[in-house]
Amino acid sequence: MGEMNWRVFFEQAPSGGGATYLDWTLQGLKLTVLLAMASWCIALVWGSVMGVFRTLPNRILYGISTAYVEVFRNVPLLVQLFIWYFVMPELVPAGLGDWFKQIDPFLQQFLAATLCLGFFTGARICEQVRAGIESLAKGQKAAGLALGFTLRQTYDYVLLPMAFRIIIPTLASEMVNLVKNSAVASTIALLELAAMGKQLLDYTARAYESFMAVTLLYIAVNLVVLGFMRFLEGKARVPGFIGGGGR
Amino acid sequence: MYDFDWSSVRPALPFMWDGMKVTLKITVLAMSVGIALGTVIAMVRLSKNRALSAFSASYVNLFRSVPLIMVLLWFSLIVPDVIARLFNLSRMANVQVISAMVAFSLFQAAYYAEIIRAGIQSVKSGQIGAALALGMTFGQAMRLVVLPQAFRNMTPLLLTQTIILFQDTSLVYVMQVRDFFGAANIVGTRDGRQVEMILFAGAVYFVACFVLSKLVKRWQERLRVVAT
């Protein structure tokens, strides 16, 4: 075990180009942040659309969104990732599958992980958007329609602006979950932060320093996310709603 | 179009069942220890002692802000060595499984503790006052009055968390522990039938979790009716 030696991070890493182990660590951090942001975009857009579908008086759209939520919430994240990475390329039309298999391996991993995390998180955002819409007084929708808005306009101008502001706190914890869940990408050899922690350990044989640095970076990223969302929550607070309706 | 060949599934069932036993063992143990430890953490957190309360708050926050995979890697690559050195043991063959059980128990305890804390707080404070007025000690009031009601209210949430735990056990993949999914994946790579085996494993998880979560939901609705 011995003494801690944090100077190890300033030693040259064997990847060349004068990179230190610190550069490696930051590289892993960058990839984790990138992965989380890319999948957040998918999750937010897709999850919102599905969440609205869950509240519409249309049986087919309701059925599709319900099936989506049930499937993506009841299959483990790791299995979903393996499905995106190993199974999908075989099942999609041959042209698309072949294209995927001959692109850069890093891109393959990143694409699979982004899609996986995006649709996994989307299922949870879907439920939050639905809950946000359902938490509004029924009169709001009726009032919108009575004023001559179409259903589409009622959602755009009345329901969604309120619902999204109400669910900001739950979206914040979902973002934190996404950052944590992104570590699953290490299982398909994407060198994000967790995988980098393992690589650092392999190369430096400094178990404590490697893992502690990586663990602290995860905590730091999550604190930044929570801080930013709290700021956003303050900006978007609706007068008359005390806690913003979070759980 | 891909040619499915499901013939690998049948002969591999006993092998996968062995994996499922590992999955269930970890789930059940982590659930029992997690709920017991979580109850203690929640009660300590709500106690008047500031230092103890802060300690359990940091325990919960620490585990909740670190990815489960990171925790598992700690327990796979670092903790076993420390334990082996501390107790002068040679590293046992099944140390990874034990390590996984400990990791999941400690990790889940943080999540259970938050549910249990909310459950305890949902019991009206007059109840504990009444219990104390009747001459009960604080411990008796907790054990006989508050906790039974709290647990009744939060059982659905605890079960939902356990379903998540059941899914998360698949991550022991990173510890080279052969659980249900690990077994299915091994068969898949061996036979060149990864597509079928991954889909089969996914289907098993889906059916189990879907049915369980529907049962929990039904129970939750029944509780609500009784409560009002």
Low-confidence stretches of chain A: none
Label the overall shape of chain B: flat
Overall pLDDT of chain A, averaged? 91
Counting DSSP E segments of at least 2 residues, the number of strands of chain A comes to: 0
Provide the gyration radius of chain A in Å.
22 Å
Largest sheet of chain B: none
Largest interface: A-B, 39 and 34 residues
Work out the radius of gyration of chain B. Answer: 21 Å
The portion of residues forming beta strands of chain A comes to: under 5%
- pLDDT averaged over residues of chain B: 91
Structural class of chain A: mainly alpha
Shape of chain A: globular
Quick structural overview:
By secondary structure, chain A is mainly alpha-helical. In chain A, 74% of the residues lie in helices and 0% in strands.
Task: Note down, in words, how this protein is organized.
The complex is a heterodimer of chains A (247) and B (228). Chain A is mainly alpha-helical. Chain A contains ten helices and no strands. The mean pLDDT of chain A is 91. Chain B has 228 residues and is an all-alpha fold. Helices cover 81% and strands 0% of the residues of chain B. Chain B is built from eight helices and no strands. The longest helix of chain B is centred in the N-terminal third of the chain and has 37 residues, at 9-45.
Task: Outline the fold blueprint.
The complex is a heterodimer of chains A (247) and B (228).
Chain A: H1 21-53, H2 59-73, H3 77-91, H4 94-102, H5 105-135, H6 138-146, H7 151-166, H8 168-181, H9 193-204, H10 207-235
Helix pairs in contact in A: 1-5, 1-9, 2-5, 3-4, 3-5, 5-7, 5-8, 6-7, 8-10, 9-10
Chain B: H1 9-45, H2 50-64, H3 68-86, H4 95-122, H5 125-133, H6 138-168, H7 180-191, H8 194-227
What key attributes describe this structure?
heterodimer, A: 247 residues, mainly alpha, 74% helix, 0% strand, B: 228 residues, 8 helices, 81% helix
